[in-house]
Amino acid sequence: QVQLVESGGGMVQAGGSLRLSCAASGRTFRRYDMGWFRQAPGKEREFVAAISWSSGNTYYTDSVKGRFTISRDNAKNTVYLRMNSLKPEDTAVYYCTGRYGSDSYTPKTDKEYDYWGQGTQVTVSS
């Protein structure tokens, strides 16, 4: 039911910034927990950030805390990932994801999400 379309990826130098956007279709977007995952070459898909539908609480993997910010604009059916102070190890394909929200739990594993975007490449050079 929910279709996700990502944009904003690209190539930046270390220390630079990017903002990824994920536009969602569907009238129930505001009820969905949303998240971002990433996958680097030769590595498994990794949790990056999530935002709860109900409380707006945000969650981050330790390596991006203080640098990345996840946010959402329900009026625009869009979730964002602002990435500051980018490092070469942030290089990966970034995926937007969502699921019908829970009042008590925001998922942080890929198997718990139901809808996925196509991915957008982020490359950070030294």
Short description:
By secondary structure, the chain is mainly beta. The chain contains no helices and 11 strands.
Describe the fold and architecture.
The chain is globular, with a radius of gyration of 14 Å. Helices cover 0% and strands 48% of the residues. By secondary structure, it is mainly β. A hairpin with a 6-residue loop joins β4 (32-39) and β5 (46-51). The mean pLDDT is 95.
Number of strands: 11
Task: Quote the distance from N terminus to C terminus.
Answer: 40 Å
**Mean pLDDT value:** 95
Radius of gyration: 14 Å
Unreliable spans: none
Structural class: mainly beta
Approximately what portion of the residues adopt beta-strand conformation? over 45%
Enumerate how many helices there are, as a single number.
0
Layout of helices and strands, plus pairs?
Layout: E1 4-7, E2 10-13, E3 18-24, E4 32-39, E5 46-51, E6 58-60, E7 68-73, E8 78-83, E9 92-100, E10 115-116, E11 120-125
Parallel strand pairs: 2-11
Antiparallel strand pairs: 1-3, 3-8, 4-5, 4-9, 5-6, 7-8, 9-10, 9-11
What are the key terms here?
globular; four-stranded antiparallel beta sheet; seven-stranded mixed beta sheet; mainly beta; single chain
